[in-house]
């Protein structure tokens, strides 16, 4: 939101008597009057229609071209012509445009990096608080539209105001001879997901780690599956949340097999059988859950060896058994290793789980699913993790944590479906997706229907960072994900 200093006293954007160290949030960033009055009947902020857009652009021209002389003839630019640009306007109840701001993607392919700009308020009207509200609305709009990086450039004298609104200072620049500050709005979507799904594991599981083979044992601590002592068996166990079991029972049954078979696949293990423990309040619901599990077993060609079934509150967990002569650890990565994502991009969002669960598996043949399941075993990377509910970014952090390193993801190189925004894709459960780490140039096996690409590197700095096309890195997860530490 590029801000510039007006020439006329009545156009000042901040009360001249307010000290820079203690700005009043009652004054809007572009208030347009030393003591602006609040709109008598309030105002509403919404995306502009054609007439409101014309009024906003006219207001911009009056302010930036005629009054301030920052532009010659017109302040229009390529962002105005971009169909992806949204203009948010503040309206009085009778539809008068009090001000506006535009938000838009920065890159040709929308990677979730947006900018805010051309924030303006009609200072001849009662507009106290409109500027602040527009800034907050722009932030909210960006986050609700899957933005991971949101920035703006503001006049230096108003940087403190943006800081009070929660923005972070990045550096100085100059626009039309006027000092400006580049600022960043913090979006913690990835960190929040990691915290809510995985951060409790370390503290909760610490008392289980006293025996030599506890939690997978040395080298496999906290892995997707666990080597069974004295054998070539690998065991994995996952549960499905009760609300999903009740809401979508056949899909829950299918997923209970899918997530466990993915766990075995990440260890490089060949599945040999499944055990289930299932409960539901009615026979009908039990039937539907087991139907989904049975279809999964038949499709993958993996038998349901037995388990436990009862009437009661909804619950579903499955244990998978597999064999691997040399299980692949999740913590075998080293600094400098390449991170590769191999994911099935086919399918689409599961109905009812838009942005959260990608269904790439239910339309696949058994042969296709088995090829996917052999990818890690046939590739034999140094480290592997299947992408869990922590998403691609969170799971990458888990692999890095188990390896005692950090990770940097190149957002432009992450394979993703065309129907999924990047922010959704790297924070959802993607069906089949494997993260592997190995030395640069290491050979990979046939990925079947999946897409495979190097999209990151293991680093010496803990946590997960995102690298953007301009070379900037932003922090997605500042430290460890699970607290389980080096495996």
Please explain how this structure is put together.
With 487 residues, the protein is α+β, with helices and mostly antiparallel strands. The protein is 26% helix and 27% strand. It has helices at residues 50-67, 78-81, 130-144, 159-164, 189-197, 201-205, 242-247, 249-266, 283-300, 366-373, 375-379, 391-403, 422-425, and strands spanning 44-47, 86-91, 97-105, 113-121, 149-155, 168-175, 178-185, 226-227, 233-240, 270-280, 304-311, 315-323, 338-343, 348-349, 358-359, 383-386, 406-410, 433-438, 451-459, 464-467, 473-477. It has a seven-stranded mixed β-sheet with strand order 1-2-3-4-5-7-6, sandwiched between helices. A seven-stranded mixed β-sheet has the order 16-18-13-19-17-20-21, with helices on both faces. Strands 8-9-12-10-11 form a five-stranded mixed β-sheet. α5 packs across α12 (391-403).
- Content of β-strand: 25-35%
Count the beta strands. Answer: 21
Distance between the termini: 45 Å
What is the average of the pLDDT values? Answer: 89
Give the overall shape, derived from the CA principal axes: elongated
């Amino acid at each position: 939101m590029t801000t510039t200093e007006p020439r006329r006293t009545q156009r000042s954007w901040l009360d001249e008597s307010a000290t820079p160290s203690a700005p009043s949030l009652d004054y809007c960033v572009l208030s347009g009057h030393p003591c602006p009055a609040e709109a008598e009947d309030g105002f509403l902020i919404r995306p502009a229609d054609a007439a409101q857009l014309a009024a906003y652009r006219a207001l911009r021209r009056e302010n930036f071209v005629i009054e301030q002389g920052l532009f010659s003839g017109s302040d229009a630019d390529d962002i105005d012509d971009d169909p992806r640009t949204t203009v948010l306007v503040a309206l009085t109840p009778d539809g008068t445009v009090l001000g506006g701001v535009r938000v838009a993607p920065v890159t040709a392919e929308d990677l979730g990096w947006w900018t805010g700009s051309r924030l303006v308020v009609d200072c001849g009207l009662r507009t106290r608080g409109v500027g602040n509200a527009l800034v907050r609305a722009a932030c909210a709009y960006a986050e609700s539209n899957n933005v991971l990086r949101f920035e703006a450039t503001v006049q230096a004298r108003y940087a403190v105001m943006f800081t009070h609104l929660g923005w972070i200072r990045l550096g100085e620049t100059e626009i039309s001879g006027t000092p400006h500050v580049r600022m960043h709005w913090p979006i913690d979507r990835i960190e929040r997901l990691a915290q809510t799904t995985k951060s409790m594991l370390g503290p909760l599981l610490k008392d289980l780690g006293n025996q030599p083979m506890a939690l997978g044992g040395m080298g496999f601590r906290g892995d997707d599956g666990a080597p069974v002592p004295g054998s070539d068996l690998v065991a994995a166990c996952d549960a499905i949340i009760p609300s999903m079991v009740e809401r979508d029972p056949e899909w829950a049954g299918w997923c209970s097999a899918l997530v466990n078979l993915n766990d075995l696949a990440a260890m490089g293990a060949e599945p040999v059988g499944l055990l289930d423990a299932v409960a539901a309040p009615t026979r009908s619901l039990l039937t539907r859950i087991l139907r989904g599990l049975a279809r999964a077993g038949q499709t993958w060609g993996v038998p349901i060896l037995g388990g436990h079934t009862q009437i009661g509150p909804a619950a579903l967990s499955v244990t998978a058994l597999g064999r691997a002569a040399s299980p692949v650890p999740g913590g075998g990565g080293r600094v400098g290793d390449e991170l590769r994502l191999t994911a099935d991009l086919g399918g689409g969002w599961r109905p009812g789980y838009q942005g959260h669960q990608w269904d790439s598996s239910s339309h696949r043949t058994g042969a296709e699913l088995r090829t996917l399941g052999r990818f890690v075993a046939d590739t034999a990377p140094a480290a592997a993790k299947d992408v869990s509910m922590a998403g691609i970014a969170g799971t990458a952090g888990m692999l890095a944590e188990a390896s005692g390193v950090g990770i940097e993801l190149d957002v432009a190189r992450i394979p993703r479906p065309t129907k999924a925004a990047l922010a959704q894709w790297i924070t959802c459960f993607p069906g089949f997706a494997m993260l592997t780490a190995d030395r640069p140039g290491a050979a990979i096996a046939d990925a079947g229907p999946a897409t495979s690409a190097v999209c990151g590197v293991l680093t010496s700095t803990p946590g997960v960072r995102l690298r953007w096309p301009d070379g900037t890195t932003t922090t997605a997860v500042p430290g460890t994900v699970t607290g389980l530490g080096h495996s």
